[in-house]
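Explain this record to help learners:
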Amino acid sequence: MSSETPIQMKKTSSFLPYPNDHLPDYALKKAERELKETPEAKQTALAEFKKMLQENPKTKEIHFEEDFLIHYLRGTKYTIQKAANHLQNYVDFRTKHNHLFQAISEEYFLTKRFIGSCVVLPDRCPEGCVVFCIRLGKWDPREIPLDDFIKLYMLTSLQILRDPMVQINGFKTIFDMKDTNIHHLRHATLHNLYILYHLPLNCIPVRIKGLHVVNQTALVSLAWKILYPFLPEKIKKRTHFHSDPRKLLDYFPSSTLPVQYGGDLPEIDSTELTWRLNKEQRDNSMRGQPNFY
């Protein structure tokens, strides 16, 4: 049985939108209940975390933003050693692949199809999760390098994680494989699949609350077969494959989904939001960035 079970949803709702500009009381209570976060515990853990980083030759010269460190503590439920391990993995990976953390070219915003390959839906789930939709078929590997697609994925992920609501509540991801083809399949190398696995699980402390795959293709079957033995049981249980995209309505309110998934929203155009996130990404460095609020 999955830890993320189907739910009966109302037709309409007024869930907190993304982005928002404050941390509501229920999120603070959830942080205390699930993450054991209180103002006192946060400051104690932060001081210990900083001390540990100062004693590590790989991190002692990096003056991390406090919000960035708190993000790591929240993502690991205040397990300080685990947070330090993840942060060191992040430093190691970014040192080798810093180009993947750069902003994308402004020219891509003239091509809405590519920008639409990584979309943040405008409303959160009832439990506060943000919904991230990756539509791989909107990226054409013959025209746009893989590195630029990874940059778009990375900047979207890193920037939405500057929202404390996302740090506390996590996010759910919809992988829509419609229109993927042999050109995408050629990029399913062990190296690329390792990046897909390593970044969210070992480097960036993401609270993954659900992974949903629609319009499954041979590319998904291959990737899943390779990655499955290495995935934590929690992730395996939270991954769902849907033969019909409308099955997403068992897990999401219709008011949060676009029409192609059986929801009430029109086709999502996130060009403006992605442009703002891309602009923010230009200031992203190894030390992290402050939260948005």
User: Anything to note?
Assistant: Confidence is low (pLDDT under 50) at residues 8-14. Strands lie at 118-120, 130-135, 171-176, 208-214, 239-242. The two ends are 37 Å apart (CA to CA).
